[in-house]
């Protein structure tokens, strides 16, 4: 896979983001925003803050990933459509590419880890994709390389891709328009594609809004990269939020994020579990751990700093099996 140079590939312009939003209109969901006002949440939120949640869990295929996946598939030439698409993912991106490929009548072969939630694997198959299981993330990327070489399929990267980041920028655009005059927008970070695109759009439309990224302590590749001034890799990923478990940052998404993100904070897995349980009990929203990460940060390390502020968070996904969700919520209630 070719390395993208952030010095030669510009981040999306406002015009490009607007055009992408128009291209996606009617194909993806313009997900709603809701205030986090339920009484059970109030004691845990910053004092006097107005916290608004972007309900991206209601997106096609269950997460924000559908935006970038569909923009990629819309960009396929006729020859590429015939050869097909491939992707590697812990789950959400694979689901999104499977869905988008089905929308475009493109054959998809997605590579997932053997540890992936069975619900996600079954979901990809139900959407018509062929699923290949790899032992770990490194083996998964090696298998995708083999598929591209042997079958000529076009690879849709989960985050290191201008079209993928353009897709997440459309989510940032919606947030900026649906939640005017934000003091801060809090966004979870895996590989960095979501925060890179969202931060770019938010800074173009609300330049005074502070963009804050959230990572698990056991998957802090972007925080380490910001500190080092260059993309860094992790020897080991250890977090309950598999959607946030990217083992490394990469140049293009890192560069866009570095130029638009104001702050990074770290959260413990226990904070995500508590937020999952509180959100379910208060709002009946079934979030995966990554989907609760932004709220966990607002309730935890950001609570004091965001007191009295107008704050946006994103519920970025909900692809989790019923039994696993029940187990994690039960654990969260005990924290």
Please give the count of helices: 13
* Total strands: 10
N to C succession of SSEs? HEEHHEHEHEHEHEHEHHEHHEH
**CATH structural fold name of the largest domain:** Rossmann fold
What is the first-to-last residue Cα distance?
43 Å
Q: What is the number of domains?
A: 2
Helical content class: 40-55%
The average pLDDT is 96
Uncertain ranges: none
CATH class of the largest domain: Alpha Beta
What proportion strand?
5-15%
Task: Output the strand order for the largest sheet.
Answer: 1-2-10-7-8-9
Main sheet, how many strands, which sense, barrel?
6 strands, mixed
Structural class: alpha/beta
Shape: globular
Identify the CATH architecture of the largest domain: 3-Layer(aba) Sandwich
Would you kindly provide a written description of the structure presented here, covering whatever features stand out?
The protein has 335 residues and is α/β, with parallel strands linked by helices. The protein has two domains: 223 residues, Rossmann fold (3-Layer(aba) Sandwich), CATH 3.40.50.1100; 91 residues, Rossmann fold. The chain contains 13 helices and ten strands. The strands form two sheets. A six-stranded mixed β-sheet has the order 1-2-10-7-8-9, sandwiched between helices. The protein has a four-stranded parallel β-sheet with strand order 5-4-3-6, sandwiched between helices. Strand 7, helix 8 and strand 8 form a beta-alpha-beta unit. The longest helix has 17 residues. The radius of gyration is 18 Å and the shape is globular. The mean pLDDT is 96.
């Amino acid at each position: 896979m070719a390395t993208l140079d952030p010095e030669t590939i510009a981040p999306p312009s406002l015009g490009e983001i607007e055009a992408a939003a128009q291209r996606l209109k009617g194909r993806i969901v313009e997900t709603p925003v809701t205030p986090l006002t339920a009484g059970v949440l109030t004691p845990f939120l910053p004092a006097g803050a107005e916290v608004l949640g972007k309900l991206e869990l209601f997106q096609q295929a269950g997460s924000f990933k559908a935006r970038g996946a569909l923009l990629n598939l819309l960009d396929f030439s006729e020859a590429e459509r015939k050869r097909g698409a491939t992707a590697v993912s812990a789950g959400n991106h694979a689901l999104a590419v499977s869905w988008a490929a089905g929308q475009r009548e493109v054959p998809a072969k997605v590579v997932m880890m053997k540890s992936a939630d069975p619900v996600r694997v079954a979901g990809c198959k139900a959407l018509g994709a062929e699923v290949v299981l790899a032992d770990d993330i490194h083996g998964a990327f090696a298998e995708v390389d083999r598929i591209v070489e042997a079958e000529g399929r076009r690879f849709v990267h989960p985050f290191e891709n201008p079209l993928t980041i353009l897709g997440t920028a459309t989510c940032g655009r919606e947030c900026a328009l649906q939640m005017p005059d934000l003091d801060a927008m809090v966004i979870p970070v895996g590989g960095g594609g979501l925060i890179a695109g969202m931060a770019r759009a938010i800074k173009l439309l609300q330049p005074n809004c502070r963009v804050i990224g959230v990572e698990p302590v056991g998957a802090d590749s972007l925080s380490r990269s910001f500190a080092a001034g260059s993309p860094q890799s992790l020897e080991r990923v250890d977090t309950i939020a598999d959607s946030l478990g990217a083992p490394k940052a990469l140049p293009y998404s890192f560069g866009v994020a570095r130029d638009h993100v104001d702050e990074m904070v770290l959260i413990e897995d226990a904070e995500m579990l508590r937020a999952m349980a509180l959100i379910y009990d208060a709002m009946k929203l079934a979030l995966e751990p990554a989907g609760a990460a932004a709220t966990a940060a607002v309730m935890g390390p950001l609570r004091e700093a965001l007191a009295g502020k107008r704050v946006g968070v994103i519920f970025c996904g909900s692809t989790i099996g019923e039994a696993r969700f029940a187990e994690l919520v039960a654990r969260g209630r005990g924290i």
